# Entry
Amino acid sequence: MPDLKITQLTALSEATNDDLLVIVNDPSGSPITQKITLGNLRKDVINTTPKTSNYTATTNDGVLFGDASAGSFTFPLPGAMSTIKGLELTFVKLDSSTNTITIDPDGTQTIDGASNYILYGQYQSVTIYCDGSNWLIKSIAGPIGVESFATNYTASGNEPEGSIYWNSTDGSLEATLTGGNVNVALGEQLYARVRNAESTSLVAGEVVYLYGASGNRATVKRASNAGDSTSSKTFGIVAETIAANQVGYVITQGVIGKMNLGSPYVEGDVLWLGSTPGTFTRVKPTQPSHLVFIGVVERANAGNGQIYVKPQNGYELNEIHDVLITSPINGHVLNWDSSTSLWKNVPSNFYETVSKNLKSYPAVFAYNGSGDLSTITYTVPGGTIVKTFNYTSGDLTSIVLSGSTPAGINLTKTLSYTSGNLTGVTYS
# Structure
């Protein structure tokens, strides 16, 4: 067979495993020409022998299978990124155990920005490639993370953000939120991602109230029972450190742990909003402090305490739906207005008609207020009665002081009037 140029060779339309390939290996400038069947080449690139323990992937590996039946292990990735740019590696988990296989980049290198990638489920696979600086995910296949839902999966406590797993201790399905610092028990906890409106960092465990909004996020500040503006909108407890003007998580309902609840806190303590901004207290505040319920201590422990959080804001009198307070002053009382079905504030001298039926005991009616009064009727059928009416100022239309004086009965009537227009008085 004559020698032919590569361009003169006949192209194969479909290769088989028995087809031969010629490989020229040039160790140290001494070329060696070798042959290999396509089938054997595939076996070499696809490492069909499953790895069962830590194995550092090389540039000669194409596909690596892993069997974690005996225990979780790691595939460390090769370094020297500048020399392996374009390298693709595929990893497949073959076993059905709940053990995991971790793909771990060298040093500070990442996989799609994450510090590693974990295979959880049987036949789960991922293909990554090197861009010269880090690793990027090209494709993912298989039942992603199925085993992370199994009730016998034990969370390590350091699952990367975006992970969903079963917490066998609390009996709940959990997910790791953005940043990796907060885990949420699905259906049992409510978290809000908010912006810190304070000039200093908020730290985990501080109580905050809704302040406003900025950058498409609700903003929060430290809550205090010292005033309505810092207590009426109490929102929850900070779940992670949030720098000034940065975003982070606040728990608004559910259990928060890792709290500093040493002595004097005990299990079952009811917690209330404190007077110092950002604090709570086990001592129920009294007026004029604003009463805001924060939650209940589930576990009292210094550094590992636990609170069930469910803020309930107290109400001012004028915040109750059937009470209408208008320009209150000293001495006002509440009066039911049937025409509007509301309790309203009125002066203490609002009651203009007084009717009493008194007998056999002294009685004194003393009016020491001010304001307009139309009619007072004070009727006594008999008895030892002392009637005293003291009126200081305002327009008075009519006063009727009446009563019988049977034999042996002493009836004393006194009218003391200071100022105002007195239209008529009947004094009998």
Remarks:
- Residues 145-152, 351-388, 401-414 have pLDDT under 50 and may be disordered.
- Helices lie at 38-45.
- The CA atoms of residues 322 and 339 lie 12 Å apart.
- The radius of gyration is 42 Å.
